[in-house]
Amino acid sequence: MAERATLSSVAERAGTSRQTVSNVLNAPERVRPETRDRVRAAIEATGYRPHVAARQLRTRRSMNVGLRLMPLQDGINGSILDAFVHALTENAAHAGYRLVLFSAPDDDGEIAAYDELLETADLDAFVLTSTHHGDRRTRWLLDHGVAFATFGRPWSAGTDPRDSVHHWVDVDGRLGAAAATRHLRDLGHERIGFLGWPAGSGAGDERRAGWRDVLGAAAVLDEAVTDGVRQGSDAAARLLAAGATALVCASDSLALGAFHRTTAVVGFDDTPVAAAVGLSSVAQPVEAAAAHVVAMLARALGDPVPPVLPSTPDRHVLLEPRLVVRDEPVSLAHP
After folding, report:
1. Would residue 44 count as lying in a domain?
2. Does pLDDT of 54 surpass 70?
């Protein structure tokens, strides 16, 4: 078994002192840029991790971060949050944090859990997901002076997300849906329908807006349904009957349902199911999102940001999604 990297082994590899390595971790402004770069390269090469117990004694903090596990969905789109939790756990370890998972049936239950966990588990901060209009969780945490960051921007009506006071990371769904629409148009489709969620969903409304950005006045074939494979199949049948020749969907669940009706479909989230059946989809960079969330928490808590995490000091980060085009779909159409 390889020996655990230490402050001394990092210093030896970087050709500097242990104190310089400590300064790079805890007070990087004291170190010259070229030396910082050399030390950070040595940290990454050796896999060095700061000693959590020593930091706890020094800071008198638990280094625990809470995250609510969202209720199970249909097993398709829930995989995105599953991937985020895995990436968050890995990136939190780089910063010396441990993830404390808890469940709650709704936002009220989550807020009640905050109150209890702050008392019983001595948590330092929280990570929130699935932000939405009228989200009271962020206001509660701000009012109580608790550090947090969200995967998902604030969606409150009349609020510019970039003016929000808390840290957030999100993916530009509008950009992703626009790319999906352009792709179908480039394939020769002129009547492209949108299969999305009812109005009022921040993420869903953004994705619908991306479809409209590309089609303009031609954006008329629009169905809004609750998320699910069966709902997607039924709504796709209506859109195709109305003249649509291709569909952009707000989720892979809806897209999989539409895939029963036509293969000219692009989903959203690029879930494992989409890959398995050859469905084109918009991929969210959840690994990058998790890394930014942890870096934001470290800065909010006054902790050093490990070199493996993003160094940007921005409080708000909007990431670009990626269109994944699959040319040979496995047909799920009914005979």
Report:
1. no
2. no
Q: Residue 187: name the closest of 265, 277, 267 by CA.
A: 265
Q: Under DSSP, is residue 268 helix (H, G, I), strand (E, B) or coil?
A: strand
| Tens-digit pLDDT profile for residues 82-137 | 999 999 999 999 999 999 999 999 999 999 999 999 888 878 999 999 999 989 99
pTM over 0.90: no
Indicate the SS3 state at residue 126: strand
Neighbouring C-beta atoms of residue 259, cutoff 10 Å: 29
Q: Identify the CA nearest to 169 among candidates 291, 85, 302, 299.
A: 291
Question: Nearest-CA neighbor of 83 among 2, 151, 184?
Answer: 151
217 Cβ contact list (under 8 Å, min separation 6): none
Mean pLDDT of 59-73: 81
- Per the structure, the complete domain to which residue 280 belongs is given by 173-284
Q: Which CATH number covers residue 112?
A: 3.40.50.2300
- pLDDT value at position 184? 96
Q: Report how far apart, in Å, the C-alpha atoms of 245 and of each of 145, 187, 224, 289 are.
A: 52, 11, 18, 34
Per-residue pLDDT, 101: 95
Q: What's the whole-number mean pLDDT along residues 271-290?
A: 96
Looking at the structure of the chain, the number of domains it has is 2
Report DSSP letters for 5-16, one per residue: P-HHHHHHHHTS
Q: Which residues contact 113 (CB under 8 A, 6 or more apart)?
A: 66, 68, 102, 104
End-to-end CA distance of the chain: 57
Phi, psi dihedral angles at 174 (to 5 degrees): -65, -45
Where does residue 225 fall: left (phi above 0), alpha (psi -120 to 50 degrees), or beta otherwise? Answer: beta
Residues 150 and 122 in one domain: yes
Extended strands (E) in 15-55: none
Cβ atoms of residues 279 and 326 within 8 Å: yes
CA-wise closest residue to 275 among 24, 79, 48: 79
Would you place residue 34 in the very low, low, confident or very high pLDDT band (cuts 50, 70, 90)? confident
Tens of pLDDT, residues 204-230: 999 999 999 999 999 999 999 999 999
| Token pair listed for 33 | 């840029």
